[in-house]
Design brief:
Blueprint: H1 3-15, H2 34-49, H3 53-65, H4 69-81, H5 89-100, H6 105-117, H7 125-137, H8 141-153, H9 162-174
Helix pairs in contact: 1-2, 2-3, 3-4, 4-5, 5-6, 6-7, 7-8, 8-9
Amino acid sequence: MTKSNLIALGFVCCLCSFPVMADTPAPAAKEHSAPVAVDKFRLGSKAYQAGQYARARELWQPLAENGNIHAQYAIGRMHEKGNGVERNFETAISWYRKAAEHGHADSEYRIAVGYAYGLGVKRDEAEGLAWLRRAANHGQKRAQKVLAQAYEEGRLGLKADPELAKYWYDKAGSGS
């Protein structure tokens, strides 16, 4: 990779952070087509920030369909929020599941929320807890905090456990 490509990739990574995707890193360049994907994802992010949801979806949809987990998450969020598409929790969950199958922690957390509230899936506390644990183990801070609270208060079918609550609170606050 040339110096100018590395500089451009660094710039792209900085630009890919925006409110709805703030906790989702920019896609990594793994192959020759990856810089094009990074550029399309960045352009989609810029369009989304500007409220140009149709343009964002136009850029992200092909990436999502080709397995880009960041684009899958982004399309899922669009459907969850109803930004540029009809609000549809089932569709959101299906996109989150595609990304979650490859370890995307934010998608795992959104699935946990879906099961907790019956959004897009049948409400199922045990399934929600399983996804919450998965997200927490992958470093998703909100999942770690919710899991800590569940252990602290004995919710989500868990027995109150102050030691596990402290463990998850510490993880959530540590950046690890």
